[in-house]
Specification:
By secondary structure, this protein is α+β, with helices and mostly antiparallel strands. Helix content is about 30%, strand content about 20%.
């Protein structure tokens, strides 16, 4: 059996290039254990459409939401990810999904970044400030020694249950189109009890209905 450890090898703030294997492995294990658990209560402030707005756990109720944690504003990989999400935001909205970008920066820093970066200027979804790191800690993605979040992605259903939890090394950027595909699969499974989506599933493709008759036939 192969075992995989998440190691923080690449970083943008002159962290120890050897990384903290135990800490990162713990972050991964904590994040994965959140699947199918309810999000914890929280209160935060976001920069959204030119305003500072409150965001709480109640804000997420009744709709699909995606929390996208990233290390910091004014960095390198982060704007490429947030810009990619911005380019696909209209499709997320058509699916009834809200995106929330989250870092341990303040909402003031988010505004400054939005005002000065052409890429971040495209962002129309809320950018949540988490300066106390309460959210990052709740979702198991906080690098305690650095005060920064790892690249964590959490898909939350309308009941507030976490359906997808992924954590990347901070040197590995994410793909909004792949996230879209996974959210579509999560929504399909939620609305079709008894069916599951196989690898590479896309809307319109066949699904599986697990049963005794199906064992050993795939």
């Amino acid at each position: 059996m192969y075992s995989i450890k998440i190691i923080n090898i690449i970083n943008f703030y002159n962290y120890d290039p050897g990384g903290n294997i135990d800490a990162c492995q713990q972050l991964s294990e904590e994040s994965m254990s959140l699947v199918n658990t309810k999000i914890k209560p929280f209160k935060a402030t976001a920069y959204h459409n030119g305003k500072f707005v409150p965001v709480t756990d109640a804000t997420l109720e009744g709709k699909w939401s995606v929390l996208v944690f990233y290390p910091a504003d004014f960095t390198f990989v982060c704007p490429t990810e947030l810009g990619d999400l911005a380019d696909n935001y209209a499709e997320f909205k058509r699916m009834g999904v809200e995106i929330y970008g989250v870092s341990t920066d303040t909402h003031f820093a988010h505004k400054a970044w939005h005002d000065t970066s052409d890429t971040i200027g495209k962002v129309q979804y809320p950018l949540v400030g988490d300066p106390t790191a309460a959210l990052a800690r709740n979702f198991g993605v906080l690098i305690e020694a650095e005060g920064l979040a790892m690249r964590g992605t959490f898909v939350i259903d309308p009941q507030g249950l976490i359906k997808i939890a992924e954590v990347h090394d901070n040197g590995i950027g994410r793909d909004a189109r792949e996230l879209l595909r996974k959210v579509k699969a999560a929504q399909y499974v939620a609305s079709h009890p008894g069916e599951v989506c196989p690898a590479k599933w896309t809307p319109g493709a066949g699904t599986l209905s697990p049963s005794l008759d199906l064992v050993g036939k795939i």
